Amino acid sequence: MAKNKVYFMIGLILLLTALASGLVFSLDYFPDRPFRLGLDLQGGLHLVYQADLSEIEKEDRASSMQGLRDIIERRVDLFGVVEPVVQIQEVGDRYRLIVELAGIKDPYKAAEMIGQTPYLEFREQQGREPEETEKILALQKEAEGKNLEEIQEMEDWHLVFEDPYFYFKATPLTGRYLKEAKVVFDQLLYQPMVSLQFDNEGSQIFEELTKNNIGQPLAIYIDDELISAPIVQEVISGGRAQISGDFDREYAIRLARNLSAGALPVPIELISQQSVGPTLGASSLEKSLLAGIWGLLAVVIFMILFYRLPGLLASFSLIIYAILILALFKIIPVTLTMAGIGGFILSIGMAIDANILIFSRLREELKSGASFSVAVEEGFRRAWPSIRDGNITTLIVALILFFLGTSFVKGFAMTLTIGILVSMFSAIVITKNLLKIFVNTKLEKIKILWH
């Protein structure tokens, strides 16, 4: 019965490995998901901006920079950048914004767009002229049945996605009149809302806008992107308004932060621009993969020569481990940088280290005269505290690096963390079940295979 359980576990492990292999090697019937490469491997653009916070109160500077970062992240999304890195760096009493754009095709346009100060404005709904409505309707009819690439080849294609009857027209109310935006909660339902407070001049403009737009949406735009379009219920005086809707607390915080960033004058100046060529990235990737292959081969040879059959089983377990890790990198997905690949290679060493502890204990038990089945159980039981403590301490350091480190350090910490977790599964589940296959077999009695 126990042996049947072992065979069942081995079957599950092999099935999981087969599925992971299909994903890693992009076999037929599996989604073709390429690995996501970072700036140093794919090439791209590294930008450093200096933020001018001279007009911002000291206690508001951190939140203003957070809002500014959110705006920049949304801007770089327009370039189709995969997982851009936008970080805030505090140098003394100065703040910098570091932007890393992997695979960017137009660095000069990107640098120009990112460097603009976030712009907040309020727009009111207006009816279109009949001629414009007819044009949009004709374009929408022409676009029927076409995909996005075919639509983009049409003249004035952007009008296809516009409302043919209404549009939002700019008003005098912009972010320069907004004093404050913060998150509040409904006292009855405890739903998050965003509270806006305008200055005296902005209060008058806002009151006039609400008076003229009762029952109509008043749209809020940042960088020409629609953030929210609440319906005006009544004339609002006093310069205070609330944006409510079907959103959670995180969205409300982000919206308030973006509104604040759009309202505050936070210009940024480009002080450093560095392009990373794809040739350098390809060379670095090739060398790192070659190093990983040679390292894995060296570990396999050492394990087989020193531990014999257990070493061969550990090598097989290590190959399964590597396949599972690479599959996870695609599924999550993880942006691979040189540092991240370094973390992956380091985790290979930690994975084999757990097996060494287990096999050393196994040998000790066999030398003391224990049966093979008892030696396997005791070997794992006695090795577990060392494996657990070593991996947990490394995991704690990796998590600290991830939450406090910069982008490349985070990449290293992310791959190392995933590697640690999977390595524990590899040693405790895969290797243990592979060893249990030989319980009560003729091979367990051949001492040269285990000593």
Low-confidence stretches: none
Number of strands: 13
Specify the CATH homologous superfamily of the largest domain: Multidrug efflux transporter AcrB transmembrane domain
**In which range does the helix fraction lie?**
40-55%
Q: Number of DSSP helices?
A: 13
Query: Any idea what the shape is?
Result: elongated
Named CATH topology of the largest domain: Multidrug efflux transporter AcrB transmembrane fold
Mean pLDDT: 84
Strand count, sense and barrel status of the largest sheet are: 4 strands, antiparallel
SSE string, helices as H and strands as E: HEHEHEEHEHHEEEHEEEHEHHEHHH
Instruction: Provide the number of structural domains.
Output: 2
> How does the helix and strand content classify structurally?
alpha+beta
CA distance, first residue to last residue: 28 Å
Top-tier CATH class of the largest domain: Mainly Alpha
Strand order of the largest sheet: 3-4-2-12
- The radius of gyration is 30 Å
What would you say this structure looks like, in words?
The protein is built from 13 helices and 13 strands. It is of the alpha+beta class. It has 2 domains: 2-39 and 277-449, Multidrug efflux transporter AcrB transmembrane fold (Up-down Bundle); 44-128 and 165-272, Gyrase A, domain 2, CATH 3.30.1360. It has a 4-stranded antiparallel beta sheet. Helix 9 (278-307) runs antiparallel to helix 10 (309-331) and helix 11 runs parallel beside helix 13. The mean pLDDT is 84.
Keywords:
451 residues; Multidrug efflux transporter AcrB transmembrane fold; four-stranded antiparallel sheet; Gyrase A, domain 2; 13 strands; 13 helices; alpha+beta; 2 domains
